[in-house]
Design a protein that fits this description.
Blueprint: E1 4-6, E2 12-14, H1 55-62, H2 67-73, H3 80-92, H4 99-108, H5 113-125, H6 131-146, H7 150-159, H8 164-171, H9 176-191, H10 199-212, H11 217-230
Antiparallel strand pairs: 1-2
Helix pairs in contact: 3-5, 4-5, 6-8, 7-8, 9-10, 9-11, 10-11
């Protein structure tokens, strides 16, 4: 059966036919031959081919198919461009990804660079790959969902291969006031679990939590100091702990 893979945009190109993978055919036994007895010596003896090839030899031969035939049996296209399309569409199902993430995946699958570039460029043209949209959505989700500061968001987007200019534009939607307000909310949620500890330990635990989320030392100290003061803690000398 010819397998068709849909291009983004509606066109389709056929994939390759699955390769056949049959084992050797055992010839019929000649006159006087005893059933179930293997021939010794002669052409093909011990090779699994020709007279005397038993079930074990045939099974071994069938199981040693080539990688291309194995892929065909699994329904994967054999043409590199078709393979690249199939891989990218599968990875993009339900999860946006950057161009670099998809390029890395194609490289791991040993897709030729020319075929990978053709597919990635096509996917960008039709909007299936959009690093700017990805970065904007990532900042929105990770800041409001996890409370990450701009510094942490920049670090994460870099690891995903987003261009520096695109990153700067995405994190630019967060201003200093919004970032500090999020830091205060994080401290307020964590504050109760630190009650009963001495002041210095509370300070380190709360400031450390903010630091792991990418907040700078100055902002962390200011936000934690204010939260402790509102609880009646004496914050004199806290600066010396940083």
């Amino acid at each position: 059966m010819t397998r068709r893979t849909e291009w983004p945009g509606g066109s389709a190109e056929p994939g390759g036919d699955p390769a056949s993978d049959h084992g050797p055919v055992e010839p019929e036994a000649g006159a006087g031959a005893r059933p179930g007895r293997r021939s010794r010596g002669g052409a093909g003896a011990g090779s699994g081919f020709g007279e005397g090839a038993g079930p074990r030899a045939r099974s071994s031969t069938r199981s040693s198919g080539s990688p291309s035939s194995s892929r065909a049996e699994k329904g994967e296209p054999r043409d590199p461009v078709e393979q690249a399309r199939s891989i990218c569409l599968r990875l993009l199902t339900g999860t946006p990804r950057t161009r670099k993430q998809l390029a890395d995946a194609l490289r791991k699958r040993e897709i030729p660079d020319e075929a990978a570039e053709e597919v990635l460029a096509r996917f960008e043209d039709v909007g299936l790959i959009d690093d700017a949209a990805f970065a904007g959505a990532w900042v929105e989700s990770r800041h409001h969902g996890r409370g990450l500061a701009r510094r942490a968001l920049v670090r994460e987007l870099r690891t995903k291969g987003v261009d520096s200019t695109v990153i700067d534009e995405a994190v630019g939607q967060l201003d200093a006031e919004q970032e500090e307000e999020t830091a205060r909310e994080l401290v307020a949620r964590k504050l109760r679990s630190t009650r009963g500890l001495d002041r210095d330990k509370r300070l380190r635990r709360l400031a450390g939590m903010l630091a792991r989320k990418g907040y700078g030392e100055g902002m962390a100290l200011r936000v934690v100091r204010q939260a402790l003061e509102e609880e009646g803690e004496d914050t004199e000398g806290l600066d010396e702990l940083f």
